[in-house]
Amino acid sequence: MELHMVLLIAVTLIPMIIAAFAAELIKSVIALLVGSVGLTLVLFNLNAPIAGIFELSVGAGLIAVLFILSVSLTRPLAKEESAERKRQHYRRFYVLPIIILFLGLILYLNKDFWINAFPFTGAQESASFGEVLWGRRGLDLIGQIGIILVGVFGVIVLFRRGKMNE
Amino acid sequence: MENVILLAILLPIIGAFILPVIGRFSAKIRNITALLLVTTSFGASLSLLGPVLSGKTTTFLLSMPLGFDLILTADALGILMALASSFVGIIIVMYSFGYIHHDANQNEYYLMVVLFLGSMIGLVYSQNLIFIYLFWEIAAICCWRLIGFYREREIVLKADKAFLITVFGAVAMLLGFVILYSQHNTFNLLEMQGKEASSLAVLLIMFGIFSKSATLPFHTWLPDAGVAPSPVTGLLHAAVLVKIGVFAFARIFVGTLQFDPVWMQILPIVIAASALVAGGAALVDTNIKRIIAYSTISQLAFIFLGLVMKNPIAIAGGLLFIIMHGLAKGGLFLCAGIVEHNAHTKDIRQMGGLITKMPITTVSFALCALSIMGIPPFGGFFAKYMIITGAVEGGNPWIAGVFILGGFITVLYVLRLFALVFLGEMRTDLVNVKEGSNTMLAAVVILGVLSLLAGFLVHFPNEFIQIALEQMKVGI
Amino acid sequence: MNETNLWLLFVIPAIVGALLLVIPMTARYLRGVISTVTAALLVYLAINLWGQQIEINLPWAGFGIDFQLRYYGFSQFIVTAITMFAFLITLYSTKFMVDKPKSNQFYGFLLLTEAMAIGAALANNLIVMLFFWEGLLITTFALISLGSEKAFQTGLKSFIIIGLSDLCLTMGIGIIWVQAKTLVMSEINLDTAGLNGVAFVLMMIGAIGKAGAMPFHTWIPDAAEDAPLPFMAYLPAALEKLLGVYLVARIALDFFTLTDGMRILVMSIGAITIIFAVMMALVQKDFKRLLSYHAISQVGYMILGIGTGVPIGIVGGLFHMINHAMYKCCLFLTSGSVESQNGTTDLNQLGGLWRQQPLTMICFVVAAASISGVPPFNGFVSKEMIFEGALEMGSAYRIFYVAAVLGALFTAASFLKLGHAAFFDKVDPKKPRVKDAHWTMQLPMIVLALTCIVFGVWHKLPLNGILKPALMESMDKVIDKGIHFEFGFGPLFWTTVLILTFAILNHWIGYKLTGKGLGASHHIYELPGLHQIYDLAEKQTFDPYVQGKRGGRYVVKGLFYIDRGVDWFYQKLVPATANKIAQLRQIHNGLYANYLSWSVGGLLLIILYFLLSVPK
Amino acid sequence: MLLAYILVPLLGAAIMPILRKIWQKGTDSVPILVTVYQIIITGWIAYQGIVLNGSLNLERWILDQVLALRLDGLSLVALLAIGLVSFVTVLFSLRYPLDEDRRPGYYALILLAVTGMNGLVVATDLFSMYVFLEIVSVASFILIAYQYDEFGMEGSFKYMMLSAVATVFLLVAVALLFAITGGVSFGELAQGVKTGGPVVFISFAFIFFALALKSGMMPFHGWLPDAYTASPAPVSILLAGIVTKIAGVYTMIRLVLEVFGFNSVFMNLLLVVGAVSTVLGAFFALGQKDFKRMLAYSSISQIGYIMMGLAAGTPLGLIGAVFHFFNHAIFKSLLFLNSGAVETATGTRNFDELGGLAEKMPVTGTTSVIGLLSTAGIPPLAGFWSKLVIIVALWMAGFKFFAFIAVFASIITLAYLLLLQRNVFFGKIKQGLEGIREVSPVVYWPAIIMAAITVFSGILFPLVYDKLLNPVNSLLGLLAK
Questions:
Q1: Is the distance from CB of A67 to CB of A37 less than 8 angstroms?
Q2: How close, in Å, is residue B225 to chain D by CA atoms?
Q3: Per-residue pLDDT tens for D357-395?
Q4: For D287, which of C585, C601, C611 is closest by C-beta distance?
Q5: Residue D324: what pLDDT?
Q6: Do the Cβ atoms of A138 and D141 come within 8 Å?
Q7: Domains of chain C by residue range
Q8: pLDDT score recorded for residue A59
Q9: Cβ contact (<8 Å) for D204 and C600?
């Protein structure tokens, strides 16, 4: 595994975790956006440009728009209340780190197993993978048209509403 | 002939849904249509009597996937129940004309009553367990709407309670049916003739039967259901609804399947407890309709005792009591309806001396009450005697003794009710009470007189019951 | 033809009775006259049938329940007696009841009662018998309720008590069917082992419940006060004794072969009834009430007599039955005559009536002498026979003899008191003078009184002409030789004389102590020990009905609470539990992170599960 | 023809902006035409029995791309349900107060959701399924948030966050399976899965998780009540009636049939999770005071039933599951239609403020009773037959305990639905609600249609069995070959 790949994965994962943990929605959404961009890069690196574009358009673009809109609709809390919320928020979240640690532990303990479990070795078969992935995806093209349409209409519908509210 | 069975069932069921439509135009035509539907169904069942008397049964068969065949058989047992219930149905529809005529939701009322009767007829002719269950639940739905007829919150709560308890029993029973299916690979009762039923299946089916027929652990919905209009309680308690369970017992366990002898020990104890507890409650309660409802519970125990004992005289007694109790209890409820309707109270402590104001009702009530008590020359006497004898013959003299006590308690509470309502001093606020309307009086008089005649002419039903026993292959 | 007559015997009164109830009539005497004519017709029919053997057999309800009637020696005796009593009492009522409230229903029920009673006596199938037998329950209730305002409560009491005994009878019959496989009365013959013994006891309860022996008696004194008087003369005095003792006789003689234990049981009931009822009678202060206790007490003699199982005792018991019916009926009728003229039967307000109502007085004296066992009246004869029967049982059973004798003593004493107080005591000068009753009321009394004398003096006549054919079938071996009762000056006669002497002596002492005829029994009432018992009895402590009501209330409450408990389960517990579980929904706090952690947790569990189940 | 299932709604959506410019009124009719077209075509296929003993296949090359679609018994039921539910949704929307300005967009999104569902149903490989799943999901996110209020946003957000997790895992599973089998079509996957091994099992776990979350089974259901409650009434009909069923349940059934087979490890887990959902979902519904929220929990519970039926692992169980799937689509959308009608008429969904509406709204009241009885499995309505078949299947397959659970959960179902009836329809009219009138025919006709379908597919069960369920039955034989 190359170094820039590791970096990219880190760039993807860290914002995602922040997105999950952040107490303020706006921070969460921004982190999500950054994470999505990272994911897009990973996908490009894995020779999956269409998926990358899709991720960028839907994940980073559409959804981020959606949420920034929604956040802008909400009213910020008072300071004390917000602090109190925050404390509670973290208290509620103690489960997640435990779970993540647990997951990590399992993965670590079965390290050899995982490595052996994956029968593919990478580059040699990438051609056939590519063919399967990109040669038989006629239906998915229609699907992607659909997704793009959804994105378009979503933005139209929600933006129009947003404008009316302002 | 086969299609007559279908006519007897489908006419009221489909016709019921036309009633609200007619009701939008004319209440009178709707009422008459309702009466006609029930009467025609009665006539259809009556016309099936001929073949049965000559020893044949009529069968209708419609093949369905997954073993859910629609099999309708007009045998003596079915016709007996069909005639009894549709006859009481006619009386009750007639009585409703007077009772219900100024209440809201009449369209729904007639729809549900006629649908109810139709599903009852369907149930008694069905030979497929699934269809028994199907009609069983349609009856439960109608019952739910009818109990909640007055729409007050407490009343609807009671309707829900009744619905939940009976459906609880019913789904348990359904599971029992499924077990039977897994045992014998069929839902068709005709194919299960004489086979053994596993004890778990018996237990589950008994849940259903007891909940519908209001026996001890599942009985409390029945007194609560007294919040319904009186013709409904008459319909529910007397003739039709509670008899469904009893009938199902006769159909499934007496006429078809065998069960482990241990049930012959357990079931009598349960029903004996039911008879006593209900009797005790009837002696304490002060609501006229609740008392009669408790009385139903205790009398149902008698019917069950007869059927559980599985010897000819007991079964004959049980079947006879289904008829007699249907007539008499229907009459009691309808009399109670007149009293409650005109005296504007259900509390028997508030009543008294009504004999001078409503003599016809009083006499009808007395006739029906005596039949319930099992006093000759009324019909109930023969049935009770046969049941008690059957219990002794079945090797349970102690249970028979308990039921004698139960019969005594019956005498006590019926007398208490009669004395408090009709005898004694007239209360001042009741001096203006009037006798019921003509159709209502006609209904109670018919039932009262029939209760009396049924005793003298017990010959006819009994002969028919003998045929039923033969068809159920119960040795005589 | 004869069969038709037999049918007519109970169909006529049933139909006429029903019609009288249904058809409104306004003429004053019309109902009474119709009933009297009907009753007379029935007497004619019954006499016409006398001596024949008729059986009717019709299929009815299956399972051994056939409509079977049998007219033979025993039933002819009962049926004829019923028709005659019915006639006399209807005649009597025509005047007595004429202006009483609710009298319009009286005759209808009277005739229905007659129909039922005749049917019960004729029945040759237990169910047919039970059919008519329990039918009497309704008419009894109705007749009592026709009395005073509160009479329906006594009616209820009678209904409940007799109803219970009838239910026992029902079960007894059920057991008999199971054990004997037949319901035909002439074919049943069982021993009393095991279940049969239960059947015997239940049947006996039914029979003595109808006859009014202890402990099923308590409604009778109450009815004496509330019910119309002819009813008392009709049912408790005459018809119920006839039927009840008839059934006791059939049970003890035909249906079952008794063991000694059962015999003792039956005789004990008889003895207890004699003593306790007569003790109660002794202290009564009301004409009718006093008579009603005697009506109970005398049943004891009959049961005792039949229970002995000795021919003379049995015959004596049955003879006593018919005698009792006559004199007790007569006594009630005299009380009615007194009541109708004076407006009361309270002994405190009566006195010196012998002048004003001489005929009534004479009838009373004859009947009272009969019941007290004064020779040569009929009561003497039958009592002697019962004494003899009790003695014949052997020395071990002497106690029953003693009880019978004691009973006779107090009976005599109480009638001395009654007669003295009502007819011979000093007159209250303020009290208006009255005339004797109407002839229609006199005639039945006179007829009955005369019969008492006839049956006493020419006792061979009824014994051989009526009772011999009656018992022919049950006890053919013994009776064939004829019934040996010779009136003689043996030890038994002297016992009777002794009894009467003691009674008179006792009366004299009592009279001297209080100066009133009514007070003649007062010293017995005041006896230490007895006094407390009497007090308790007045508070109805010994009334099983009252006690049962008291105790039953707790039982019933208990049952009711069981029911409420079950209801609580559905009404409270189930919804509460469901709600508790539904409260778990509060873990949904609306935070998506929370939901996310559940999902991830679930995922981990799933992964774990799948890893664990990877095939090795 | 198969392609038309995808293309027609897609085109319908695509022309919406144009139509808005040239013929504003026409925007209403396009979605109606599209859905009616789907109902008619599917109904015709069913009626003709075309897929009775086989399937319709399409394999065509377009622009160097192979395009493989298939329509068999299972897809048939799903397509019919999609058509029906989206049709009533559209009908209901006609009078629903949506911004007139944004209405075409709204219709377009609904049509896109239909496109997604149709595509998912006729797809023959896992990846295509995934793509269409995403279309459905994203369209629903937006539809939930359509009102643009706080609740809508929150519901949409929760749905999206959890759904994203699910899709990630689904994708990973696809990747893993792809890696070991070298293909993503069902046939290839099924071959690969037979080899077993830990990776297969891990991908099982991931797929199971993803689909359980999509279908809202416990404990992955967190998003569901909020999403259903927050969305506008017509959207919740679509969402509850069909979207989650297709996205979660249909996918599960399809994958079990085509890829996993009735693997006992998988089935046992499904059974347990299904039972937990059934019971807890019903209990949670019991405590609700909000019309839609109660129905949402009810959905969870009913999905449990479907899964239990599937997990019985027998043809009978499959039939029960599929039929219940269909019925659930019908009666749940019926109930949501009722809730929408009540909300339209009274402006509230809170039980405390409602009562006795049956008197004022007879049609809504009556249809809600039918929906209630069908949900609770009371004969002779359709819900009864499917539940019965599921119970029979469970018992016959030896899962007796679960048969008991299935039976007694239906009591709780009945209990909460009676609670609903009591608080909303059955009773005396609540003070302040006297002026309420029945909603307009456009709103109540959909309810009548759904109620009629429930009633008739119950009464005419043999017909339904012949035309709709027999193909499913034969499907098993087909797959075994």
A1: no
A2: 16
A3: 877 888 888 899 899 889 888 888 888 889 988 998 999
A4: C585
A5: 92
A6: no
A7: 1-195, 258-509, 546-613
A8: 64
A9: no
